[in-house]
Specification:
Alpha-Beta Plaits, about 25% helix, 4 strands, two-stranded antiparallel ribbon, alpha+beta
């Protein structure tokens, strides 16, 4: 896998995940998005501008049927020597 392919795959993971089968197209998430990354296409919410999505989670909070999820990665880092001083 090239670096560009890896970056593209990582970029696609860190976007709001919308369950298109359950989306009713109400548009509330679109209204709440502060940067205009979301839109309605064929009656469903979609991430139209992934390049400007700031991952603020307002769309997730605003969605009445709660079909938008923002996956998070939780990292566990080993303690550094400074932690023991």
């Amino acid at each position: 896998m090239s670096m560009n392919e890896g970056a593209t795959n990582l970029f696609n993971v860190w976007l709001p995940q919308i369950d298109y089968n359950l989306c009713d197209g109400c548009g509330i998430c679109v209204e709440k998005c502060p940067v205009g990354a979301l839109g309605i296409v064929q009656g469903k919410a979609v991430v139209l501008r992934p390049d400007i999505c700031n991952y603020c989670a307002l769309c997730e909070e605003a969605c009445p049927p709660q079909i938008i999820q923002l996956p998070y990665l939780i990292g566990v880092f080993p303690p550094s020597a400074e932690d023991y001083e």
